[in-house]
Amino acid sequence: MMNLDKVDMKIIELLRNNSRESIQKVAEQVNLSRSAVDKRIQTLIQENVITGFTISTCFDQRLSPSDDIHSYLLIKSGSVDCKQIFKHLKSAGYDFQFESIYGEFDCLIRVNSTRLPLLYEIKKFIIDIGGIESIHILPVLDIKHE
C-alpha cells in the first residue's frame, strides 16, 4: 500500500463525506491546484486506496443523528502485537477507540460508523499488516433507550 500524507487523507475524508464533490472544491479545501488534486485522486484509485465511489440512501441512516452510531471489530491478532495494529490504524486517521482484550479475541475496536464500505476498508487496512488470524465486523443495528 502506498504511503498516504495528510493531503491524501484529507482528500479521502472529503470524498468520503461527499463522493460527488467537484475536484475544484476539493482542491480549494486542500489548498492545491485542480490538476494536482485530480492526479492525487487518480493515483489513489490506481493504488486501490480508493476502490469505488458510493451514494448514501435513506437506509444508511436507520438511527437518528442523536444516537450513538458505531460498530465493533473483533480481531484475533495471530502473530501481530495489538500495539502494532493500533499504531497502523492511528496512522490512517480513522475515528476509532481501541482496546486490548483477554479471551478468544485479542483486540476490540469501536468505529464511529455503521457504513459497511468504511468498515470493510478498515478491515482490509488491518489485514494488510499481515499475520492477522481473523477479523469480525459487528455493526450496531439498534440502540434501546429506556
From TrEMBL:
<keyword id="KW-0238">DNA-binding</keyword>
<dbReference type="InterPro" id="IPR036390">
    <property type="entry name" value="WH_DNA-bd_sf"/>
</dbReference>
<dbReference type="InterPro" id="IPR019888">
    <property type="entry name" value="Tscrpt_reg_AsnC-like"/>
</dbReference>
<protein>
    <submittedName>
        <fullName>Lrp/AsnC family transcriptional regulator</fullName>
    </submittedName>
</protein>
<dbReference type="InterPro" id="IPR000485">
    <property type="entry name" value="AsnC-type_HTH_dom"/>
</dbReference>
<keyword id="KW-0805">Transcription regulation</keyword>
<feature type="domain" description="HTH asnC-type">
    <location>
        <begin position="4"/>
        <end position="55"/>
    </location>
</feature>
<keyword id="KW-0804">Transcription</keyword>
<dbReference type="InterPro" id="IPR036388">
    <property type="entry name" value="WH-like_DNA-bd_sf"/>
</dbReference>
<dbReference type="Pfam" id="PF13404">
    <property type="entry name" value="HTH_AsnC-type"/>
</dbReference>
